[in-house]
Design a protein that fits this description.
This protein has seven helices and no strands. By secondary structure, the chain is mainly alpha-helical. Helix 2 runs antiparallel to helix 4, helix 2 packs antiparallel against helix 7 and helix 4 packs antiparallel against helix 5.
């Protein structure tokens, strides 16, 4: 519904943050020795938020790609949404593999399992920057295009006068 009113870019940012914030918070959750049974309750709550975000992220991504793609490229670019899901699982498997290569099982269970969740923070920053850059870049392109048209019109007007 938000996408119908404000375009699909805004809901995409919302679901990105709904996924990113709980993911980062999981990396900083206190242990059950620190806060008791509240730790697993918080973990389940954060995982539920992630699940709701994924439920909105996939169709929002597909809609955004579809709306912003040229007509002759819509099909191939929309298929990237599905392929990126598989790529994400592959990258997550690679991170898990690397964790087990560099840390022993006890270290992973003690604290190293938090590393992938904390690494989501810079990844989220890159995603948010790309949204900002695209928005500002497109605006600057529109301004540049408007200026070029104005210059052309002024030159044509001077030639005609």
């Amino acid at each position: 519904m938000m996408g119908d009113r404000k375009g699909s870019s805004q809901p995409l940012k919302v679901v990105l943050m709904l996924m990113a914030i709980p993911t980062a918070l999981i990396g900083f959750l206190p242990t059950d020795q620190d806060i008791g049974t509240l730790a697993p309750v918080l973990l389940i709550t954060l995982r539920l938020l992630q699940g709701f975000a994924v439920g909105g992220e996939y169709p929002t991504n597909a809609c955004y790609i579809f709306e912003s793609s040229p007509d002759d490229r819509k099909s191939i670019l929309c298929s990237v949404v599905a392929a990126s899901t598989a790529l994400g699982m592959l990258l997550a498997s690679l991170v898990a593999f690397l964790l087990f290569q560099y840390f022993d099982r006890a270290t992973i269970l003690a604290w190293a399992w938090r590393i992938p969740f904390i690494l989501s923070i810079p990844l989220t920053a890159v995603c948010l920057y790309s949204f900002w850059y695209k928005r500002n870049f497109l605006k600057s392109e529109k301004i540049l295009s408007f200026c070029m048209e104005s210059i052309k019109m002024a030159v044509i007007q001077n030639i005609l006068d």
